[in-house]
Design goal:
mainly alpha; Serine Threonine Protein Phosphatase 5, Tetratricopeptide repeat; disordered N terminus; TPR-like_helical_dom_sf
Length: 285
């Protein structure tokens, strides 16, 4: 009887130990899965930010082939294609993404962005029109403004630009776009004001500096504005101003500005030299 009880206790202990081992294995597996998810998430973030864009494309193509139902991986592929400046392929990736169960309105806005980059303005507009009006984001309104610009619907463009500016803490880029819109319409003084405002937000934005010079040149104001610039930037802006003067018919002023840009540049300024030579050769002929 004692042997039976002892055997029962031993069996019970063995079962308990087996159960403990099983529980421990399950917990370990779950912990490892969690670690893998964290590691993969970190790797995805790295691929979308600091990795070489084309390497990121290769990574996400492989990942989506292995797990085609993962919305986050498909989104990563589409975003990495945009980073790699491959918008046509990005459109295809976003087309697949927006049909997946986990797609969001942000994904549809990103599809519109890819379509604009690919030059398909008509479909970009239709894509944005399909996004619910309650989805009010900076990117959505910035794209809406660009589409309105492409249609020369200036009133709507201004409204969208104004809304977009109010939805971001870093409005320099959209202010520059809005200024360029005004520049193309011939509203040079307003364009100059918007470029100045963009530079107040971001003093390093060279496109806004160059655009401001274009706006001033269009008004026959050939003085560089007071703004931060290094020697190379100053030379480039003088070159832009010189070409603008020539376009306005102020050839001698333009030639003087081109010479000044050549003298200002810390290195050989081939573009300005070429412009000046072509101008002088044309005058001689």
């Amino acid at each position: 009887m004692r042997q039976i009880k002892f055997l029962s206790l031993c069996l019970s202990g063995a079962v308990l130990l087996a159960a403990c081992d099983k529980t421990t294995d399950d917990e370990v597996n779950r912990a490892l899965q969690n670690v893998n998810v964290v590691d993969e998430s970190n790797l995805n973030d790295i691929m979308l930010t600091v990795a070489d864009p084309n390497e990121a494309v290769t990574y996400f193509k492989r990942a989506t082939a292995d797990q085609p139902d993962r919305t986050d991986l498909q989104r990563g592929l589409a975003q990495s294609l945009i980073r790699a400046k491959r918008p046509t392929e990005a459109v295809s990736a976003y087309d697949k993404l927006v049909k997946m169960a986990g797609a969001t309105d942000d994904d549809r806005v990103d599809l519109a962005d890819a379509l604009i980059r690919a030059g398909n303005w008509k479909r970009a507009k239709a894509t944005l029109d399909a996004v619910p009006p309650t989805h009010e984001t900076f990117k959505r309104y910035r794209l809406e403004a660009m589409v309105a610009d492409s249609e020369k619907n200036w009133k709507k463009a201004d409204s969208f630009y104004e809304t977009a500016v109010g939805l971001t803490t870093k409005p320099a880029g959209v202010l520059n776009n809005w200024g360029y819109s005004k520049l193309t319409r011939g509203d040079y003084s307003e364009a100059e004001r918007l470029f100045s405002e963009a530079l107040t937000q971001d003093k390093t934005l060279f496109t806004a500096k160059n655009n401001m010079v274009l706006a001033r040149g269009a008004q026959r104001n050939y003085n560089l504005p007071v703004m931060p610039m290094d020697q190379t930037e100053r030379a480039q802006l003088l070159h832009t101003l010189g070409l603008s003067a020539i376009k306005q018919g102020d050839v001698e002023i333009g030639k003087g500005l081109l010479r000044e840009s050549i003298d200002t540049h810390p290195q050989h300024f081939e573009a300005a030299v070429r412009s000046l030579r072509a101008l002088e050769s044309n005058v001689i002929n």
